[in-house]
Amino acid sequence: MSHVAEELRADITRLNVGLGERAYDILIGPGLFHEAGERIARLRPGARVGIVTDRHVAERHLATVEAALRAAGLTPTPVIVEPGEKSKCFRVFEEVVDALLAARIERRDVVLALGGGVVGDLAGFAAAALRRGVDFVQAPTSLLAQVDSSVGGKTGINSRHGKNLVGAFHQPILVLADSAALDTLPLREFRSGYAEVAKYGLIDNAPFFAWLERKWQEVFAGGPARIEAIATSCASKAAVVARDEKETGDRALLNLGHTFGHALEAGAGFSQRLLHGEAVAVGMAQAFRFSARQGLCSPEDALRVAAHLKTVGLPTRIRDIPGDLPDTDGLMDLIAQDKKVSRGALTFILARGIGRSFIARDVDPAELRAFLEAERGAI
Ligand SMILES: NC(=O)c1ccc[n+]([C@@H]2O[C@H](COP(=O)([O-])OP(=O)(O)OC[C@H]3O[C@@H](n4cnc5c(N)ncnc54)[C@H](O)[C@@H]3O)[C@@H](O)[C@H]2O)c1
Ligand SMILES: O=C(O)C(=O)C[C@@H](O)[C@H](O)[C@H](O)COP(=O)(O)O
Ligand SMILES: [Zn+2]
Asked: In what residue span(s) does the 3-dehydroquinate synthase N-terminal domain sit (predicted)?
């Protein structure tokens, strides 16, 4: 008999991503990794499970997950990669796929992504490609992964031409967000993930942004405010993904801050100098400043966005990024590789105010260039 009560525990939040026959649950709460075996076994009894994780996460959480899987009659094989954005590359992708094949992960088996967004994107893409597609489960361990990357099925790796340029849409069959796992996450990484939390407020939920301005310290401290922030974020993302799984329409709103941010990440060599969420923080502040410069939103809103990000310790300007970055031409070239570019026309997520973001197609490259020049001069 199952040790996990059929009724959900009161301290677990369950959301659903409504994608018809590919719908799946997102479970959020403490201790879920101890139940990972039973929860996965309910979906795929007796499966082999290729656990893709990174070294930091393996040291802290792998033993718990492996034990839970074995106890439920599943057969785990860990595949451990080096931590960090540099692992989202062709070489590591090949190593992961080979290791999963060596472990005989077959079509009725499961790939389990245990880690942050790097592991989730990499393992998800490996699952999408392996034997032309095997099921995967997301077990996100960073704040960023719990509020964003584990949901929605965007998987992939970086190329020398830019960020996330090779990948696939491949939805997980389950997301297990064990909020207790965040207790071992370094503060800088938590902050980086917080940028994506703030993003949901800036897109279309001004009351949530105002709540974060009041409650951010409680979110950082842990407890109910943190769970509420994770659940609100996942609910926002689940709703957008259910409407527009493959980003033919308003899913692009989730890219707020990312056109600038991805160019900066690539410009910094996908290094520890600039984490993804940090790049998104600079990018969101820039998107609001650019919107204000275009007369789309008030300068006060742009200042308010930057002020909150700065208050929590996130960068908001190019000058906050340590080390050299490409010049304006170099940044324009990187921006030209953005996946929202269509026949050369630039698409940005801009804003008419906090919680009033919109998709701006055909952004004038000359205006963008002038803005970037002004941003570089603003020291
Ligand atoms: N697919 C999507 O929809 C989506 C959305 C947002 C971001 N992303 C991608 O996610 C990536 C960033 O994810 P991230 O910020 O989680 O980075 P990450 O995966 O590199 O994890 C951050 C760091 O924290 C460590 N870590 C993770 N969980 C830990 C824990 N519980 N305890 C101790 N250490 C822990 C990791 O080892 C790593 O060193 C980027 O590549 C970004 O492009 C994807
Ligand atoms: O899920 C989405 O859609 C997002 O845009 C979420 C982003 O936070 C995430 O960083 C995503 O990977 C960026 O997507 P991309 O298509 O610009 O690579
Ligand atoms: Zn992101």
From this structure: 79-191
Q: Whose CA is nearest to atom 14 of ligand 2?
A: 255
Residues annotated as catalytic are 132, 154, 196, 237, 247, 251, 255, 258, 262, 276
pTM higher than the cut 0.90: yes
Ligand 3 midpoint to CA 118 (Å): 11
Read off the pLDDT of residues 47-84 as tens digits, 9 standing for 90 and up: 999 999 999 999 999 999 999 999 999 999 999 999 99
ipTM comes to 0.99
Architecture label for domain 13-184? 3-Layer(aba) Sandwich (3.40)
CATH superfamily, domain 188-377, is Dehydroquinate synthase-like - alpha domain (1.20.1090.10)
Give the domain ranges of the chain: 13-184, 188-377
Spell out the SS3 assignment of the chain: CCCCCCCCCCCCEEEEECCHHHCEEEEEECCHHHHHHHHHHHHCCCCEEEEEEEHHHHHHHHHHHHHHHHHCCCEEEEEEECCCHHHCCHHHHHHHHHHHHHCCCCCCCEEEEEECHHHHHHHHHHHHHHHHCCEEEEEECCHHHHHHHCCCCEEEEEECCEEEEEEEECCCCEEEEEHHHHHHCCHHHHHHHHHHHHHHHHHHCHHHHHHHHHHHHHHHHCCHHHHHHHHHHHHHHHHHHHHCCCCCCHHHHHHCCHHHHHHHHHHCCCCCCCCHHHHHHHHHHHHHHHHHHCCCCCHHHHHHHHHHHHHCCCCCCHHHCCCCCCCHHHHHHHHHCCCCCECCEEEEEEECCCCCEEEEEEECHHHHHHHHHHHHHCC
Q: Which ligand is nearest to the CA of 120?
A: 1
